[in-house]
Design goal:
The protein has 93 residues and is an alpha+beta fold. The protein has a 5-stranded mixed β-sheet with strand order 1-2-3-4-5. A hairpin with a 4-residue loop joins β2 and β3.
Length: 93
């Protein structure tokens, strides 16, 4: 599934248009050097197709490219990082 993911800094989210609803990865920035991924949502009709993983990868790549440490408040993001050790270096200690 090809996704067009957009980053909206004003609303602090990564979104992918899924037709009637958007899939999203929301975040907060508790400080300049930290990004906290707080919530992931994928419409029911698009679940199980890797949409959340693609959003999370996009968010983590953004964090890495911008030198930010990551807090994974969202359990889906936390699980993704746990399963993908390459991203664990981004976690805020």
């Amino acid at each position: 599934m090809e996704l067009n993911i957009k980053h909206d800094k004003k609303y602090q989210q990564f979104t992918a248009n899924m037709g009637n609803e958007d899939a999203e990865l929301a975040y907060a920035t508790p400080s300049e050097e930290v990004i906290d991924f707080t919530h992931t949502f994928v419409p029911e009709s698009a679940r199980g197709k890797g949409v959340a993983n693609k959003l999370i990868e996009e968010g983590l790549c953004y964090a890495e490219e911008n030198g930010k440490k990551v807090i994974a408040t969202c359990p889906v993001v936390k699980k993704f990082i746990h399963k993908n050790p390459d991203y664990q270096k981004l976690l805020k200690q």
